[in-house]
Amino acid sequence: MIRAIVHQGFIGSDIEYFAAVTGPDVDKRFFFEQINTGRGEVVRYFGGNSEVVLNPEGARFRGNGGMFGEYMFGGHLPVGDLLNDQVLNRLVLFGATSNPSTHELLFTPNTEGFEPYDNLFLHGNAVANYFFFLDDRKRFPDVADRQEQTLKLIGKALKRSEKVGKGQFLGLAHELLDALAETETTLAIIRVVQRSHQRLYEICRDRYVNEHALVRRMARRCRPSTRTSASAFKSTSSIIIPTIRLSSTSTSGSLPVAPDRSSAHRRGLG
């Protein structure tokens, strides 16, 4: 019995993608389309009223689901995540926003959007980020209700799973599908990798692990001079993303909201 289908491919020379689609009778369902355009190759994953489309400029999405990726060392973390050492990953749910006066988490039907690759790897993880969506066979006709239920059932796993940073997307897909416990639901996860950033990361990692050469070189270059002004070492202030407390019915705990860079659909969990 086939439980998952995995794809791997490229968009241009710098973007690599991996996709895992898991669920019942997945081998008998249509969920993928490949399109050749004048701008380059486009791939589309879809199910129900949701889809993720990878084109040469970025990723277009609509329907339920969201984006997630491992936090980068030294990046800006919301206070709620910074104080919780079990939180490893950034999570954004499409259409999620908050009430500015009560800080209550709200879900809207405004889930359609587009994320250029430059923004994706700047505001998310610099090497790899994920998109996901569910085809629940209209279990929740309203997308806002679907998003709220998704957060309650798998939000905690998405924020804390070590499989995200390790690139174990197939194991993660099975783990999330089991947590959903929806027998008719299909889950699609698309992992998008910036290959140039990945090569640089691997070079730095190998130098550090094998030789510690990077640390020694940086130590020599960063050794302060006696003539250096003390003000040169003062760090600039940073803006902390506010944290939202979910209602007691949620099993995901305290989750932050990402900064709104365009409209309501770009807001989500930090």
Notes on the structure:
The chain is 27% helix and 31% strand. By secondary structure, the chain is α+β, with helices and mostly antiparallel strands.
Tally the helices: 7
The amount of beta strand, in percent, is 25-35%
Strand order of the largest sheet: 1-2-13-12-7-8
Order of helices and strands: EEEEEEEHEEEEHEHHHEHHEE
Spatial gap, N to C terminus = 37 Å
Tell me the total number of β-strands. Answer: 15
The helix-and-strand class reads: alpha+beta
Rg (CA only): 20 Å
Shape: globular
How many domain modules? 1
Topology, element by element:
Elements (H helix, E strand, L loop, with lengths): L3 E8 L3 E8 L9 E6 L2 E8 L2 E5 L3 E5 L3 E5 L8 H4 L6 E5 L2 E3 L6 E3 L5 E4 H7 L4 E8 L7 H18 L2 H4 L2 H12 L5 E9 H17 L1 H10 L20 E3 L8 E3 L14
Antiparallel strand pairs: 1-2, 2-13, 3-4, 4-5, 5-6, 6-11, 7-8, 7-12, 9-10, 12-13, 14-15
Brief descriptors of the model:
alpha+beta; 270 residues; globular; five-stranded antiparallel β-sheet; 7 helices; six-stranded antiparallel β-sheet
Brief characterization of the structure:
The chain has 7 helices and 15 strands. By secondary structure, the protein is an alpha+beta fold. The protein has one domain (4-194, 241-266).
